[in-house]
Amino acid sequence: MTRDMVFEQLSKTVTKMRAVRMSQVLFDFAMIYGIICVVMGGARVVMFNQTFIQNDAMIVVLLISVADLCLAVIRRNYRSQGIALSKQLTGRLSDQEAQLIQALKRF
After folding, report:
1. Tens of pLDDT along 62-77?
2. CA–CA separation, 18 and 6 (whole Å)
3. What is the mean pLDDT of residues 16-26?
4. Among residues 24, 27, 31, which one has the least CA distance to residue 73?
5. pTM (two decimals)
6. C-beta of residue 44 within 8 angstroms of C-beta of residue 51
7. Which string of b and e fits 19-41 if b means at least 16 CB within 10 Å?
8. What is the distance between the alpha carbons of residues 106 and 99, in angstroms, rounded to a whole number?
9. How would DSSP label each residue in 56-106?
10. Please, what is the end-to-end C-alpha distance for the chain in angstroms?
């Protein structure tokens, strides 16, 4: 791959990682909200404007946490791909390339 192709793929990977991170933040808040609702609720739990029995509410929270875990694995995969791509950039890095690699390391 040429240097420009690697830079383009690396920028796409960073963009995807940002989107996955934002989705993961939403699922984190939904999971915390669900846990609080289950703990504070009695036999009937009102969560996301729906009434659930406590067992069903716990299953919903479990499913949200599984989706959150899947997003974490996807983000880890994107990060490993980005690191592999960044190793292909040899020699002196331009400012944009260095900033993009720093952004990759932040995720």
Report:
1. 999 999 999 999 999 9
2. 18
3. 94
4. 24
5. 0.82
6. yes
7. ebeeebeebeebbeebbebbeeb
8. 11
9. HHHHHHHHHHHHHHHHHHHHHHHHHHHHHHHHH--SSPPHHHHHHHHHHHH
10. 24
